[in-house]
Amino acid sequence: MTSKRRYVVVGTGHRVQMYLDAMAGDHGDVAELVGLIEPNPGRLAVHLAWLSEAGLDVEGVFTGHPDTLERILSEIHADRMIITSPDFTHAELIVRALDAGVDVVVEKPLTINPESTRQITEAVMRTGRQVVVTHNYRYSPRNSALKEVIKNGSIGTPLSVTFEWVLDTAHGADYFRRWHRDKANSGGLLIHKASHHFDLVNWWLSDSPEQVYARGGVRFYGADNAAARGMAPHPERGTHEGVHGPWELDLRDDPRLQALYLDNESYDGYHRDLDVFGPGVTTEDNLAVIVDYARGATLSYSLNAHSPWEGYRVAVNGDEGRAELDVVERAAVLTDANGRFVVDPSASVGESSSRTGGERLTLQRHWEAAQDVKIEEGAGAHGGGDALLLADIFRGPEDDWLDRPADWLDGIRAIAVGMAGNESLRTGLPIKINDLNLGVDLSRSARPVS
Ligand SMILES: NC(=O)c1ccc[n+]([C@@H]2O[C@H](COP(=O)([O-])OP(=O)(O)OC[C@H]3O[C@@H](n4cnc5c(N)ncnc54)[C@H](O)[C@@H]3O)[C@@H](O)[C@H]2O)c1
């Protein structure tokens, strides 16, 4: 008999690595990988080989296609299923796992539209099983530090929040090279990316969003914008011979991307390196959102996906003072002679003449001078945030004064803002979250709406 929980993982692309590393490493004493499910057999084989190199015995790991999920789950007696597949596949996989008697850990976003949210809600109610959404940004020490400042009452009752997030021309552009570029696959950046940010605000304020007004559009990327700016046509893909421009990603420049994606295109035709100025871009790249919260606070939020630097600025105005969090994740995107750039730069800081990387949390109470609040960093990725998240997922969650573990209701609250925002973009009107008919009353409890 073993006391280890048995895990099956679905979707073996980029994001899965964090979970597989955890099970092959620090959390291997409590978590056993028993299954890997993935439609692309080549990509699945790459991860199996890497797991083996990391010292995990993969002989007994069951592998298969998502079509056979129920059979696999019953054969391997999984306790939990971790979902790291594209956003539009989450809901169906969650419902199937819950109905098969297996709890779920799912990457953000929980799902991408009201209909599939209702299906998840019904499945949770029907089965009584657990769905955990891994909102990792809560665990980043700087975001936790702001939560602490608000929760300990330093600024009094929060009345309003301003929040600006800028994605740079490396990381931001990457959303326009693959499945995220089609809004049908991800719900657009209001869901795919901003669900991180809306979850932070919901959690910082310990409140529920009620009404959303959004404006924005596809203003920078895509073929129409390139043509309107008179740009010369780019090659369809970044992986090609000859000279490369700074917008292009050549998968051969990164052995990991080559092994996972380029070498396995024959199975599914998944191109990871499409031209960001090519046809088929429907995901908005400039967004502005106003959100009313149940207890009266207002959020003013904006997202830009083609900024020369990457980071965010948040200010929370309370009735006793103000807290400000300023973060420069990367001060500039610079190119070398070959036009190379970093694909997943979320934790790195570049060079810049006038902008410095780093983070600063400032607290200023009424009638007092401003003071810096110390941000306690841990070891590892995202200032130790990933390690804390993984410990909660695999060993916890522990009682947490900061309420960091996120359940399915938090997952719905996070995407509810984006779903209402998308409806507002479509109609031009402010949208009440209750009118999305999500099947659950987010402002009060997890009871189904009768
Ligand atoms: N929390 C974070 O910071 C963070 C960061 C990156 C990605 N993510 C999330 O992780 C998920 C995966 O993103 P990614 O960048 O790894 O994408 P990816 O495209 O690199 O990998 C997705 C994998 O899922 C497979 N897949 C496709 N359809 C499937 C299906 N129906 N069932 C099972 N597998 C299927 C693909 O073949 C691929 O191997 C997304 O939901 C994304 O939003 C979260």
Descriptive overview:
The protein is of the alpha/beta class and 450 residues long. Among the domains are: 137-220 and 282-436, Dihydrodipicolinate Reductase, domain 2 (2-Layer Sandwich), CATH 3.30.360; 223-268, no CATH class. 30% of the residues lie in helices and 22% in strands. The strands form 2 sheets. Strands 14-13-12-11-7-10-9-8-15 form a 9-stranded mixed beta sheet. α1 (16-24) links the parallel β1 (5-10) and β2 (31-37). The longest helix has 20 residues, at 408-427. Residues 10-15, 38-40, 43, 66, 84-87, 89, 107-108, 136, 192 line the site of nicotinamide-adenine-dinucleotide.
Short summary:
By secondary structure, this protein is of the alpha/beta class. The chain has helices at residues 16-24, 41-53, 69-76, 90-99, 114-127, 141-151, 171-174, 183-186, 189-192, 194-205, 223-228, 255-260, 265-268, 385-395, 408-427; strands at residues 5-10, 31-37, 62-64, 80-83, 103-107, 131-134, 158-168, 209-217, 286-293, 298-307, 310-318, 321-330, 358-365, 371-373, 431-432. Strand 1 (5-10), helix 1 and strand 2 (31-37) form a beta-alpha-beta unit.
